[in-house]
Amino acid sequence: MSKSNRIIFVALYCSALWLAFDLVYSNAIVPTNTKAEPTSRAKSVIFHHGLQPNFDGIEGWGPFRYGFATNNLGFRDETVRDVPMHFDGRRIILIGDSFTEGPGLPFEKTFAGMLALSPSARQNKTEVLNAGVVSYSPVIYYKKIKHLLDSGVRFDEVVAFPDISDVQDEATSYFCIDEDVKYRQYCREDSSHEISRSKLLSNFVVTHRVQSLAKNAIVQWRGGHAAKVMHRLPRSGWTIPGFDVGNHYAPLGMEGGITRGLQNMQLLGNLLKSRGISLQLVVYPWPMQLAKDDRTSRHVAMWRDFCARNCRDFINLFPTFFNEKDMHSDWYERLFIVGDVHFSAEGNKLVFRAVAKRLIPGHDAGVGDRSQADGN
After folding, report:
1. CA distances to 163, 179, 263, 365, 373 from 319, in Å
2. What's the CATH architecture for 91-359?
3. Are 61 and 192 in contact, with CB atoms under 8 Å apart?
4. Beta-carbon neighbour count of residue 84 at 10 Å?
5. 249 near 257, Cβ under 8 Å?
6. When comparing pLDDT for 118 and 197, which is higher?
7. Chain mean position to CA 195
8. What is the per-residue pLDDT across 202-254, written as a single tens digit (0 to 9) for each?
9. What are the angstrom distances between the C-alpha of 128 and each of 85, 132, 318?
10. Where are the domains positioned within the chain?
11. pTM reported for the whole predicted model
12. Mean pLDDT throughout 70-88?
């Protein structure tokens, strides 16, 4: 065996030992009361995937473990409880993807949880329910809200949080549940990449933690924030002028994903209008948009234009986040989970403060709040 082959063999052998150790540690040595429970996730023939109803256990997101509960509707909630079909007051349904579900954090530290538990909401007889789940996009927003209505759940408003990643999801996934027959030709037994990623990271906790620390150290050495999110550029790069997304948006392509996303959101808007239910949209940036100074983002423009015809209100959180970036050089570490694109506890608090002002009458975000939600 040549010297180079021996080096390769030793490297592969050591890597295999490391991964085997990590797999055993993550699944056997990590205390069982901190292990993620895969049963919190559920498949759906109607809206592809969701959460098990009345689940009470532990979820995992990378190295994080946190309490996770759902109500009888399969919505993430403070605790297991029965939500009645009707509510004697104002009921708001939040719908979005992983950012709305709130990965890596307990319910009360997510913006959805803070809205639901807000004293102002309760004083105004306003119930906020979180229907968001990882990897949702407009086709699922529509199908899930329609399913809720068909099941007899009654509500007054829907607040959707379309994510920048929705365009890729609409371009690549969930064709089997789309009502438009032209998309059925792409129907495959697809699975949620975010769910698969979460399960994978739960099985290799040490490796993920080392990777995140190394990545952050390299970024600090290079003295920039943009490199922190380079590994997610294809997923969020469609808003950046001139950025080549390659084949990451096949089979529909980037423009096809935008068209399909708008089409499915229009179906949602039409459905809600026919039932006398108002629709509001909230948009927010990923770290890449902040790093690339994408202040006049295409993401904002497309949903603002949609809302001009279909929404009661449009809440643009880009100015809110750029305001934080302009004031804090450590904006990434403050607002996002390091090594990830999702909001930290502080980032969730920022979203809560800005949205609550517009969503909950009489809400007072407190002295010193600098949130600047722009509805124009």
Report:
1. 16, 35, 27, 17, 7
2. 3-Layer(aba) Sandwich (3.40)
3. no
4. 11
5. yes
6. 118
7. 11
8. 566 666 556 655 655 555 555 555 545 545 689 999 999 999 999 999 999 99
9. 14, 12, 23
10. 91-359
11. 0.83
12. 98
